Structures are given as C-alpha cells and as structure tokens.
Amino acid sequence: MSGKLFRPYLMVAPAITVFILFFIYPIFYMVFLSFTDWDLISPVKNFVGFDNFIDLFREDEFRQVFMNTIIYTVLTVGISMVLSLLFALWLNKSGAFYGMAQGAVFSPYIISLVSVSLLWLWLMDPQYGFLNFLLKLVGLPANTWVAHPDTALYSLVIVSVWKITGYNTLVFIAGLQSIPKELYEAAKLDQANKWRIFSKITVPMLSPTIFFLLVINTIASFQVFDTVKIMTQGGPVNSTNMLVFYIYEYGFDFFKIGYASAAGVVLLLLVGVMTIFHFKLLSKRVHYR
C-alpha cells in the first residue's frame, strides 16, 4: 500500500527536479546576484543592496531600452494578432489551394530565427536590398530600414510579425473549426449580417484562442534577442536595444553581472505583471463552452 502511495511522486520526481534545477534555482540566484557587484571573474560577491536597481532607473539608456521593448511588444503583438485573424478567416476553407496557402503562411514560423534575420538583413540593405528595389519600381523613395534610428525598431517589428503570423494563423484556424456550425446556421435563419455574426458569434467563441495567443505572444516579444543580436546589435544609437539584449550586453560584454541581474529581475517582474494583467482583465471576457 505504501508503495502505491509514493509511486505518483516518484514518477513526477525527475520532471520536478529538472524544473527546480533549471528554472526555480536560476531565478532565485539571479535575484541574489542583483544585490551584489559581482563581475563574473572575481569569486567575491559584495552585497550592495538596492544600488544596482537605483543605478538602473537613473540611466537614460535603460529607460530608452524599456520603452523600446514596450513599443516593440505592443506593435508586434497587435499587428500579428490582427493579420493572423484575417488570414485565418480567409483560409478556413477546404480545398487544395487553401491547404497550400496554409502551409505557405505557416512556413516562416518553422524557419530558424537566425536564418530569418539574415534573410531580412539582406532584403533591407539600404543600397542593394530587394525591398528598396521594389520601392524604386513603383516610384517610391528608398528606405534606410535598420540603418536609421527612426526606422530600425519598426523594421524589427516587420520581421517579427512575418515570423509569428503563420503560427497564430493556424491556431486561429483550429479555433474557428471548433465553433459549432449550428450557431452560424441559426444566425443566418435570423437574417443576421456578416458583421453581427463575426462580433456576436466568431469573436466570443474564439476568445479562449485570442487570450492564449495574446499571453504567449506578449511573453515571447518581451524576450526578443536573436533578431536584435544579428540585425542591429541594439543600434543605431540604441534605437533597437531591448531588455534581453541589454542584459546580455552588460552581463557578458561589460561583466557587470549584478547590474545585469537587476535588469533581469525588472524583466521578470514586467512579464509577471503583464501576465497577471491579462488574466485579471481579460480572463473574465473569455467564454468557455
């Protein structure tokens, strides 16, 4: 009897151990390091209290990085969600063409982010890029894209939207296909127009899918790193520097582990607050059948 009682705990023990070692412990260790001035080389970790956090919020550079991350997240999540829903409404049909179109839309998501960044870096080249070639063909002036502070951040948004839209689209299609057809048939019998059907049936029934995508896309956008590292290195003039790249830069380029850990704690709190905000504000609007 005692063996059966402890068997479930033994079964989950490996997963719990991995979770504690690679998720819980690093978080607590990062919080501890944020109160020190450790430089990654010296074995001494001097306790400095809240000095790292005070220095963090005094820095104009950090405030700019913080705002860059917020703007990038809002634009990336907002644009990708809208485009994905429009694509899903269009592609939610049977047939060989729509199956091929779904595969084409989804394909950017399965490509390595490094490859995607290098591809778009070539496409956005100010002198030889294909995008500027297309702009010249239609008589529009060439764009500087990632080479200018005014356009660099929005160029990264374009890349991220192109990358994530396919995944969101397929999730939306799955949500649309789970909506009972009887609801649409009843609405047509009541002579409801397309907008009323969309706003009163489609959106409420898709609300769990919308909520799920909103949360995971927000968290992923706050953690952007590869695109920044490969395409801009945080420049020009710090215009594309994001929180994760900022933490990496101060931790492994400048060897200010305590300062970088403080920035990591801020990022952790920011993601946590945003996630709680989504659950508190939006979960009540989610309709589960």
From TrEMBL:
Which CDD domains does the record cross-reference, listed alphabetically?
TM_PBP2
* Alphabetically ordered keywords of this record: Cell membrane, Membrane, Transmembrane, Transmembrane helix, Transport
Q: Where are the transmembrane segments?
A: 12-35, 70-91, 103-123, 152-176, 197-220, 257-279
In terms of InterPro entries, this protein maps to: ABC_transporter_permease (IPR051393), MetI-like (IPR000515), MetI-like_sf (IPR035906)
**Domain of life per record:** Bacteria
Domain named ABC transmembrane type-1 is located at 66-278
Q: Report the membrane topology from the UniProt record.
A: Multi-pass membrane protein
The UniProt entry, under SUPFAM superfamilies, shows: MalF N-terminal region-like (SSF160964), MetI-like (SSF161098)
Q: Which family does it belong to?
A: Belongs to the binding-protein-dependent transport system permease family.
Pfam family membership, one: BPD_transp_1
Q: List locations, semicolon-separated.
A: Cell membrane
Q: Which Gene3D superfamilies match?
A: MetI-like (1.10.3720.10)
Q: What is this protein called?
A: Carbohydrate ABC transporter permease
Name where it mostly resides.
membrane
